[in-house]
Amino acid sequence: MSVIGLPDLDHEATLDPQIQPLPEGVDVTKPPRSIFLTGATGFVAAYVLADLIDRTQATIYALVRASNEAAGMERIRKNLEHYRLRCPEMATRIKPVAGDLKQPLFGLPQAEFNHLAEEIDVIFHVGSKLSYIAPYHFLKDANVGGTQETLRLATTCRPKPYHFVSSLGILLNYKKLEGGHEEDELDAEKCPEVGYFQTKYVAERVVRIARARGIPVTIHRIGLIVGDSERGYSNTDDFVARILIGCIQAGYGPDIRNAMDMTPVDFIARAIVYLAFQPASLGHVFHLLNPAPITWGGIIDIVNEAGYRVEKLPFHHWIQTIEEHADPDENPLHPLLPFFHISFAGRMLGINENAYHALGTADTQAALAGSGIHCPPVDEALINTFLMRFVDAGRLHPAPQWATSAP
Fold first, then answer.
1. What would the pLDDT profile of 155-190 be if each residue is shown by its tens digit?
2. Beta strand ranges found along 251-404 (DSSP E)
3. What is the pLDDT, as a whole number, of residue 178?
4. Comparing C-alpha atoms, which of 176, 173, 199, 178 is closest to residue 342?
5. Are residues 111 and 252 in the same domain?
6. Are residues 183 and 79 in the same domain?
């Protein structure tokens, strides 16, 4: 029996017995005519959507919470425009599906769900409800229930390859820092006691049940996602953006010298789409994290070199200083402060010297070899790209040296 608030994750992972593989096989080498995508009004899925439009000729059926298709298209359009993702074929290639991951059959009538299942050739389940402070049961319907319903779609009318975007965060609550390679069995003890990661663990466990039944699934685990490496666009509530901006506003940053993951979103999208259409990928697990890690101490050094004045402090001293001195109404770090007190946050940010290196990527790098897809390093050029984008967006004041050098 689990303690209240601490769900038994493996017991939570169940898949409707009616969701079974269909007798026909799937041909992943055949170009898809129609693709089903969840999360198109989010960050990562927006880039996946743009890449699917660019690299296929398929019609993209995009699930979106909206009252009708027109309202759904407007939400998708605004999201793509927010990240300046040019999709000239948007009007003809994207078909919004007004529905909800939290509802059985996405809230669609059975006949409409069946018609959609008949149309679709491949599924990309990217969408999820993200919160680092909400409890498991608050997120369960969208993140676990939505996974079951997308698997139901994959096995209705005709079989479809199924691509699930999971999270590397489900591996980071190590009792002992070992394992974490792509094909390792899941271990509930490695999952942090954070509601979001608990739901992603259970959802991946559900996908693995589907794989064991013979349903053609592929799992893409992603780490700490940062902005577009070329143009710097990122999620408004981006974790790293909040820390960067908050540290500069407060004048204090964490002096952490251990490796951590920061993976640009454009690499993630290109890798997922490429791997999805490789026959050898089917049934495998991939770890999409940056093979060239960064440290927060190094990031703060770059910030200082850019002209901002940020004093580096030990992690817990930094948290205390932010709590005592930063403006709670203006500083974007304040909503994250409860999260920083969770032990997992330290592992995520590099407090543990081995956490990053315990996540294996050998199989993933081998699968991407020869593709021309490389993860950009998080270096001075990339951090400065982010800083300048924050300035352009009015989220950050220009560095003094930028202001004085302006014409």
1. 999 999 999 999 998 988 765 555 568 888 888 988
2. 252-254, 263-264, 285-288, 311-313
3. 58
4. 173
5. no
6. yes
Find, among 333, 317, 320, the residue nearest to 248 by Cα.
333
- The 3-state DSSP class for residue 164 equals strand
Q: What number is the average pLDDT over the span 28-49?
A: 95
pLDDT recorded at residue 2: 42
DSSP assignment, residue 143? I
Domain membership of residue 141 (yes or no) is: yes
Q: Are residues 147 and 164 in contact, defined by beta-carbon separation less than 8 angstroms?
A: yes
Considering the domain architecture, whether residues 280 and 324 belong to the same structural domain is answered as no
How crowded is the C-beta side of 398, counted as CA atoms within 13 Å? 8
One domain for residues 142 and 64: yes
Shared domain check, 243 and 96 = no
Least confident interval from 18-22, 84-88, 259-263, 369-373: 84-88
Question: Which helix (H) or strand (E) is 298 found in, with range?
Answer: helix 296-305
Place of tokens 């939505």: 146
pTM of the model: 0.93
Neighbour tally for 240: CB within 10 Å: 22
Domain with residue 181: its CATH number is 3.40.50.720
Please tell me the total count of domains within the chain: 2
Distance in angstroms (rounded) separating the CA atoms of residues 205 and 15: 9
Is residue 44 helix, strand or coil?
Answer: helix
Q: Which two tokens stand for residue 303?
A: 């910030």
Secondary-structure percent of the chain, ordered helix, strand, coil, rounded to 5:
45, 10, 45
Q: How far apart are CA 111 and CA 106, in angstroms?
A: 12
Partners of 226 in the β-ladder: 264
- Which residue shows structure tokens 């909503």? 335
Cβ atoms of 221 and 377 closer than 8 Å:
no
pLDDT in tens, 352-372: 766 777 788 889 999 999 999
Same domain, 301 and 209: no
The Cα 39–Cα 251 span in angstroms is 36
Question: Does 231 fall in a domain?
Answer: no
Residues 121, 245 share a domain: no
- DSSP E strands in 28-107: the ranges are 34-38, 59-64, 94-98
Three-state DSSP at 162 gives strand
Pair (183, 282) in one structural domain:
yes
Q: What are phi and psi of 311, to 5 degrees?
A: -85, 130
In a domain, 2, yes or no: no
User: Within a domain: residue 370?
Assistant: no
- Which long-range CB contacts under 8 A does 305-308 form with residues at least 24 apart? 305/380, 306/383, 306/384, 306/387, 306/399, 306/401, 306/402, 307/399, 307/400, 307/401, 307/402, 308/248, 308/387, 308/399
Domain that holds residue 198: 9-226+263-288
